[in-house]
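Ex. 9. Protein: Helix-turn-helix transcriptional regulator.
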Amino acid sequence: MNVVSYSPQEPFDSFFRECYYIHLGKEKANRRIPVIDDCCYDFVFFKETKGVFHFGRDHNCTPIDSRIFTIHDVTPPYRIEAADSLTFFTIKLQPWANAYFFSTLQDSGVVDISHLDANLISFHEQVFRTNEVTEKFSLAEEFMTQNTMEPTPSMALVRDICEYIYAKQGKVTVNELSHQFERSRQYLGKTFKKEVMYSLKRFIVTVRILDLVKFKAKNPDISLTELSYDYGYFDQPHFINDFKKICGVAPQQFFNNLPEFLMRHQ
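Predicted structure tokens for Helix-turn-helix transcriptional regulator:
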């Protein structure tokens, strides 16, 4: 698997979190790529439309028959399976920009978004016309330039909340956020859900678990029990339950088969 990622710089990082390019050769055919929902929506561009999207603990699946799509309103775990070789490029949003781009989505699952913006079709054509990955990222920045905007006051508040949660590695409570930002729990919850399209509690747990996963990936010798304590879990059932909500499987099972895709940030 060839995975290359890029973190946008100012001013693009105000609304876009990451870009990455993945190529799965024929020798890796039928291999499933685990995808963890990080509460950030994506513009996904497939070169081929031969993949299958798997989701939920009941092993639901749907063919990916759109070349430009996002994933919306489905239950983890997620996996993308390549029927043959598979090449795709993804532009990931900052969470506080989710609703700005995707609040009108009605369908769930793999949702075709090519109609949302004519620039998406043009970008798809250009990004797979070049073989140079650096050029793909330059094209992504051009796309971002066409989609920058001034944040509304509620977006700015939610951005500050998200950045605070990231800085705290998800080790924070809604009560602490209410005190920190001098807003009621109810107001924060309603405003956050409006902009991020995820609940505030869900986002906190997601950030905490994903930070824990990345720490464990870099420090494989640390025990899960010790790590869960470090991240504020003082009983294993609570930790395992939260982990399953985000990753779809139990911690031991996940780390026994650590996704190669996740290692792009190492």
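Check your answer against this statement. The beta strands are 2-6, 16-24, 32-35, 42-46, 51-55, 60-64, 68-72, 78-82, 86-93, 109-112.
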